[in-house]
Amino acid sequence: MLTGIIEGIPAHVRLSTDDLRQALARRRLGAGRGARMGFEQDQVRITGGVVQGETIGSPVSIEIANTEWPKWSTVMSADPIDPEVLAGQARGEALTRPRPGHADLAGMQKYDFGEARPILERASARETAIRVALGEVARQYLRQGLGISLLSHVVAIGGIEAAPTSPSFENLAAIDADPVRCFDPQASARMQELITTTTDGGDTLGGVVEVLIWGVPPGLGSHIAAARRLDARLAAGLISIPAIKGVEIGDGFELAPSLGSAAHDPMVFDGGRIRRTTNRAGGIEGGMSNGEVIRLRIAMKPIPTVPQALASVDISTGGPAPAHHQRSDICAVPAAGVVAEAMAALVIAEAAIEKFGGDTLGDVRAAVQGYRVRLDAAGMAGSW
Q1: CATH classification of 2-93+124-377 is 3.60.150.10, yes or no?
Q2: Could you give the 3-state DSSP secondary structure of residue 336?
Q3: CA 181 – CA 185 distance, rounded (Å)
Q4: 221: closest CA among 354, 125, 118?
Q5: Binning pLDDT at 50, 70 and 90, where does residue 109 land?
Q6: Secondary structure (H, E, C), 52-99
Q7: What order do you get walking across the sheet with 60-66 strand by strand?
Q8: Residue 189 CB burial class (10 angstroms; 0-12, 13-18, ≥19)
Q9: Rounded to whole angstroms, how far apart are CA atoms 291 and 183?
Q10: Span 128-142, pLDDT tens digits
């Protein structure tokens, strides 16, 4: 069972259980080729904060049940279970061979457990389901209140890279329909072949996902404190996704070898409005959104639960042993994109709530419009 709460969402944002089901379905479909976790079906329920399809201003609470839970209800029971009962269950076997790349060993060391089960179940990427559900609440607030839209797409799996492209929000359905959520059909076909080959070889794959966010007003986040910088908050949210090892904003690492004169975004007046001729900064400058499209990339390492089992040690014997092999996917990069959308939506929503406040959706829209009028009057609305 997963539960989550999101606070600050104003009253009258339209939201239904179907919205959450569709978001979770995108996460499952995003597993695409190489998925082995599809049997874990989500049963989502809104338990507070929504009445008759609209938020009411109180925290929105969500619960996600898993159809697999009955098989684990004894082993993972919150109440003590007779050791003889546990001994008769295969799922109750102590996991004393930690898996490299997972939280197993570090968690056992930190919390003083002799086996990894209490660690690996909570550290599982299964928890990203609730992130996606909460992210859908944030997405609806952003869309209805501020006109913000966002999507993700896979730009690389293994050593295969998609051709440079910049999809629009209208392409989201086509991206979701692709087995690996790649906007380049030729690259997608090659990625799918690589996943098949890797599956046959008993190995796993990582890759890179890009998140694009349109319609973000300038000034979300702040330069006045490190914890309020929008880029820092987005980076923290994205790197918190299991198996993500790198976050890039805008042109990111490509800017490092550049001269300063070629690394930034020149400004011009165009029709009485300030515009940037490029977007190397990825829509964020000085810790604040600047009105351009926000561009984020995340790098996902190959899933560490490798079918062929990596070398490890057995804590119970002190000798060498192959790591335990729990169920896992071969490539979770497409699904990670859906999770990244959710995390980006949650961060942007939090920053928007800070700036515009409002007890109702109407309050939010009025505050956003007032801000737009002020910027337009000064000729400073830019691309927003």
Answers
A1: yes
A2: helix
A3: 10
A4: 354
A5: very high
A6: CCEECCCCEEEEEEECCHHHCCCCCCCCCCCHHHHHCCHHHCCCCCCC
A7: 2-6, 60-66, 42-48
A8: middle
A9: 25
A10: 999 999 999 999 999
Domain residue limits, the chain: 2-93+124-377
Question: Can you tell me the distance from the alpha carbon of 330 to that of 198, in angstroms, rounded to the nearest whole number?
Answer: 8
Strands 311-314 and 319-322 come out as antiparallel
Residue with tokens 């190995």: 203
Strand partners, 51: 54
Q: Is residue 383 packed enough to be buried (19+ CB in 10 Å), middle (13-18) or exposed (0-12)?
A: middle
Range list of H helices, the chain: 17-29, 83-87, 104-111, 117-123, 128-146, 172-177, 185-200, 230-239, 333-356, 361-377
| Residue 101 backbone class (left: φ over 0; alpha: ψ -120 to 50; beta: rest) | left
Q: Give the residue among 195, 174, 194 at the shortest CA–CA distance from 185.
A: 174
Question: Per residue in 324-363, pLDDT tens?
Answer: 876 678 999 999 999 999 999 999 999 999 999 999 999 9
pTM: 0.93
Distance CA 341, CA 150 (A): 7
Q: DSSP per residue over 259-320, as a string?
A: -GGGTS--EEEETTEEEES--TTTTEETTEE-SSPEEEEEEEPPPS--TT--EEEETTTTEE
Q: First vs last Cα of the chain: how many Å apart?
A: 41
Q: Which of 118, 24, 99 is nearest to 67 (CA)?
A: 24
Q: Taking residues 90-116, report their average pLDDT.
A: 90
Please name the residue that has the structure tokens 């918190």.
Answer: 240
Angstrom distance (rounded) from CA 95 to CA 89: 13
Locate 291 and state its tokens: 């009105």
